[in-house]
């Protein structure tokens, strides 16, 4: 009933109907279109075997972004272009430079994960030119290889730019000087996507399951007021797991990912306001300009395909005690902008979580944005994530410190913590112990002891409660060693290999 889901698939228009709106893009590709190059490995966005590339119109032409098809619900690609590994070769069968490079560098063995690697490399090929080793590793952070090892795949990433496009016009979207290019392929895709644009909300329904995609924030507010029990989604990187892992039915969904006035980042004189439809990729790019100390935290938040789909607001709305964005935002005094038909209201993020997986959002409201005050003078900022792996791992502990130092004295302290309580929380006792004290070893030791005893974490598969408490205190000491100017202790691994990788 209602509209069809219309999108481009490997350059051809598809009008999909008669399928559940909670069908994943992966299921549609494999079961309905028999495009079986895209694999299912984990069904939760961890392994990358299902990676495809989305192309969407933007202000500079076309943006190419790798995403996980296994946790992307089909209606969310309405109006977009989807490219699978089957699309890479030229019409006459000649391989794309990405494919040729994988062969030349012996970067495939069993082949199960190879299509996902190929599509992540294709996304990199379209968005960067001569990327650094670190940029390549970041681009591949969402792809797991079980047998070949990563060195030949990294070699292929470097080699692919030396090969000519197979059909003469599907080249990289970045010039040799690093500037963005609008290629013939981009122009072709942009024109085809323009033909798919809707002038009203997508309303799709099948077998009692409803998907609405409003076009404006006012329409979102009206939809939420009318259907307060509907599930509000954007990137779906968490919600989709209810479908793929718990096999639950999402009867009524309001999708805000295509709302243009929620996809904006407003940088005013006093604050950053990041809208509900802004991806983590977009949010991190903006926040890194003001707070570059958080760059690694955003990078380790998740893989590139996850960051391309997920939103900062979605992580806030989820309310998970191990969500990585909330500790940083708590330390930065962020405020949540809630909107309903009656207007907007703001609430401090540190008052937004009354209990485990609960928020202060009233029925009929949605989170429109998060407001983060501009950087104050003399701010010392660090964010530390502790997990079992560097990439693609849930935090055992995440802590962010924001201190204002003046004349060697801590004038103001904000400490956001995750993984140590039922909700993301500020360490108020430790903040009080720091404020007004000299920033020296004695203060740091005392504050570290306070922080280590401030929360009552749990034992779980990621870490014991005792480990979490000790780590909290040690991370405050690490902060002191890194920021006091009196460092006598190395706080990061330093080796010739890492120096070579960093370039």
Describe the model.
The chain is an alpha+beta fold and 503 residues long. The chain has 3 domains: 5-194, Beta-grasp domain (Ubiquitin-like (UB roll)); 260-373, Uridine Diphospho-n-acetylenolpyruvylglucosamine Reductase, domain 3 (2-Layer Sandwich), CATH 3.30.465.10; 379-483, CO dehydrogenase flavoprotein, C-terminal domain (Enolase-like, domain 1, 2-Layer Sandwich). Helices cover 31% and strands 21% of the residues. It contains 17 helices and 18 strands. The model has no long low-confidence stretch (mean pLDDT 92).
Topology (SSEs and partners):
Layout: E1 5-9, E2 12-16, H1 25-32, E3 51-58, E4 61-68, E5 81-83, H2 97-104, H3 114-127, H4 133-139, H5 151-159, H6 184-194, E6 202-206, E7 209-213, H7 217-226, E8 231-233, H8 239-244, E9 252-255, E10 265-267, E11 271-275, H9 280-290, H10 295-301, H11 304-309, H12 312-318, H13 325-331, E12 335-340, E13 343-348, E14 366-373, E15 379-386, E16 397-406, E17 409-418, E18 425-426, H14 428-434, H15 441-454, H16 465-483, H17 496-502
Parallel strand pairs: 1-5, 7-9, 8-9
Antiparallel strand pairs: 1-2, 3-4, 3-5, 6-7, 10-11, 11-14, 12-13, 12-14, 15-16, 16-17, 17-18
